[in-house]
Amino acid sequence: MSDKSSSRPSGFDRRAFMAGAAGSVLVPMTARAAAQDASETVAQNPSLPVEVTLRVNGKDKRLSIDARTTVLDALREHLKLTGSKKGCDHGQCGACTVLIDDRRVVSCLTLALAAEGQEITTIEGLATDDRLHPMQQAFIDNDAFQCGYCTPGQIMSAVACVREGHAGNEPDIREYMSGNICRCAAYPNIVAAVKQAAPEIMKG
Amino acid sequence: MRPFSYQRASDPDMAVQALGAAATNTPLTKATAQPLAGGTTLIDLMKLDVMRPTAIVDINPLAHAWSAIEPGSDALRLGALAKMSDVAAHAEVQRSYPVIADSLKLAASAQLRNMATLGGNVMQRTRCNYFRDVSYENCNKRNPGSGCAAMDGVNRMHAVLGTSDQCIATYPGDFAQALIALDATVEITGKAGTRSMPFAQLHKAPGSTPDIETALQPGDLISAFSISGRWPRSVYLKARDRQSYEFALSSAAIALDVQDGTIRDARVALGGVATVPWRAREAEALLKGHRFDEALAQRVADAAFADARGRRHNSFKIALGKRVVARALQQAVTMEI
């Protein structure tokens, strides 16, 4: 059977099933909080889900979430944008790196409610139409990954690293990419990829 | 993570009121309402169940008033909500206060520095594994009176200065050493308005109350730091297990005023080795009025660690710390300004 086969019975998508099952427990549909003034109080009763609008890759997404939801979980579990990866979930590995208002951050330590009104860019938002972002192409060209789990975070971090002006030489790239751990240790090739893409990105 | 209510601060008064509503005899670290700035400590410790606030007050909307980086002709004022990365990259901070810029640049990762604020940075909690892992019951910081699992546990990363028989947890930050070395003042906005205190009085050594970490009360927010004078001859040297993105095993913040080869003023602060940001005043006294040489550097380093007490796994920090002080002094004396 082809991986692209459409013969799989509908309703048996594992991710959709898991999300639906979890959602029915965590977010009772009868207990919606009234939308409140977003400029001040957002959630007063912690047992109720909160309405929030996240701007992700240029599109506004209205969500009803638990106040505890991080940007990472909002992306993966609510918006089905599973490119950003959950590694440590404690801000130590960088696999969840996204850009918020063009600055790289770890989405696992960012509350979704606190990101309202800000522009979130994920790995899914880098490519334009069917053309890869120069950093994505550079990772392929330089074989800058093995298992690939850290790669979306590495690429998001690398894009920011270049834009910050911290990709001018190899020691700088190593220092300013140190927040992204690669347990396959593809580091030499990651450094090469960042070096390759930097001039093209700076050219705009 | 336990459930909490989330509020966005509309102004400082509202934030102070929301945070200070709890009983004032609660230590700040246990207050039911906690401020959210960068979140890099708070959200982490909430996921670990170490911190259990029932209310979060997001103070990031105060950034428009509290995040300025303001170098004066002979002073520096830093808003508490300024991001570590922005201060580290500021040209005038790099030129006139390299110890500040470097202490920030050598901390954490690029992502965390983009998130973390200066105020939150100085308030970060210890990385003691027994504190961070709630499956250990014995932590006087988390559970006062329960004992200290680190005393006879794996204590390689723990403190050798400022310890007590209740707690040997290391203060983990870097920036605070620069602040204490430069006699910084911290500005606090609280229920009674705005007040200032020497930064050196902000942190409390563990003594018999390791759960009380600072002089702040619930409802107090750090709004700014200020430093008088310029300190172009200053360095931050950090020794650690890996070259980047790691906490200090030992670090030194050094600031000198050298005229015609004679040291007129000297500041020495230590990180990675003490329970609180640590100023080594006895060491400073040895430097003032003297010309620098290696023998003097050694005497200064010995004085800085004269009261140090190692335990099973961390005694190496005393020898390492002395070398860090000596090398940092050499770097400060020889740097071109």
From TrEMBL, chain A:
<dbReference type="Pfam" id="PF00111">
    <property type="entry name" value="Fer2"/>
</dbReference>
<dbReference type="InterPro" id="IPR052914">
    <property type="entry name" value="Aldehyde_Oxdr_Iron-Sulfur"/>
</dbReference>
<protein>
    <submittedName>
        <fullName>Oxidoreductase</fullName>
    </submittedName>
</protein>
<keyword id="KW-0411">Iron-sulfur</keyword>
<dbReference type="InterPro" id="IPR006058">
    <property type="entry name" value="2Fe2S_fd_BS"/>
</dbReference>
<dbReference type="Pfam" id="PF01799">
    <property type="entry name" value="Fer2_2"/>
</dbReference>
<dbReference type="GO" id="GO:0016903">
    <property type="term" value="F:oxidoreductase activity, acting on the aldehyde or oxo group of donors"/>
</dbReference>
<keyword id="KW-0560">Oxidoreductase</keyword>
<dbReference type="InterPro" id="IPR006311">
    <property type="entry name" value="TAT_signal"/>
</dbReference>
<dbReference type="InterPro" id="IPR036884">
    <property type="entry name" value="2Fe-2S-bd_dom_sf"/>
</dbReference>
<dbReference type="GO" id="GO:0051537">
    <property type="term" value="F:2 iron, 2 sulfur cluster binding"/>
</dbReference>
<keyword id="KW-0001">2Fe-2S</keyword>
<dbReference type="InterPro" id="IPR002888">
    <property type="entry name" value="2Fe-2S-bd"/>
</dbReference>
<feature type="domain" description="2Fe-2S ferredoxin-type">
    <location>
        <begin position="50"/>
        <end position="126"/>
    </location>
</feature>
<dbReference type="InterPro" id="IPR001041">
    <property type="entry name" value="2Fe-2S_ferredoxin-type"/>
</dbReference>
<keyword id="KW-0408">Iron</keyword>
<dbReference type="GO" id="GO:0046872">
    <property type="term" value="F:metal ion binding"/>
</dbReference>
<dbReference type="InterPro" id="IPR036010">
    <property type="entry name" value="2Fe-2S_ferredoxin-like_sf"/>
</dbReference>
<dbReference type="InterPro" id="IPR012675">
    <property type="entry name" value="Beta-grasp_dom_sf"/>
</dbReference>
<keyword id="KW-0479">Metal-binding</keyword>
TrEMBL record, chain B:
<keyword id="KW-0285">Flavoprotein</keyword>
<dbReference type="InterPro" id="IPR005107">
    <property type="entry name" value="CO_DH_flav_C"/>
</dbReference>
<feature type="domain" description="FAD-binding PCMH-type">
    <location>
        <begin position="1"/>
        <end position="232"/>
    </location>
</feature>
<keyword id="KW-0274">FAD</keyword>
<dbReference type="Pfam" id="PF03450">
    <property type="entry name" value="CO_deh_flav_C"/>
</dbReference>
<dbReference type="GO" id="GO:0016491">
    <property type="term" value="F:oxidoreductase activity"/>
</dbReference>
<dbReference type="InterPro" id="IPR016167">
    <property type="entry name" value="FAD-bd_PCMH_sub1"/>
</dbReference>
<dbReference type="InterPro" id="IPR002346">
    <property type="entry name" value="Mopterin_DH_FAD-bd"/>
</dbReference>
<dbReference type="InterPro" id="IPR016166">
    <property type="entry name" value="FAD-bd_PCMH"/>
</dbReference>
<dbReference type="GO" id="GO:0071949">
    <property type="term" value="F:FAD binding"/>
</dbReference>
<dbReference type="InterPro" id="IPR036318">
    <property type="entry name" value="FAD-bd_PCMH-like_sf"/>
</dbReference>
<dbReference type="Pfam" id="PF00941">
    <property type="entry name" value="FAD_binding_5"/>
</dbReference>
<protein>
    <submittedName>
        <fullName>FAD-binding molybdopterin dehydrogenase</fullName>
    </submittedName>
</protein>
<dbReference type="InterPro" id="IPR051312">
    <property type="entry name" value="Diverse_Substr_Oxidored"/>
</dbReference>
<dbReference type="InterPro" id="IPR016169">
    <property type="entry name" value="FAD-bd_PCMH_sub2"/>
</dbReference>
<dbReference type="InterPro" id="IPR036683">
    <property type="entry name" value="CO_DH_flav_C_dom_sf"/>
</dbReference>
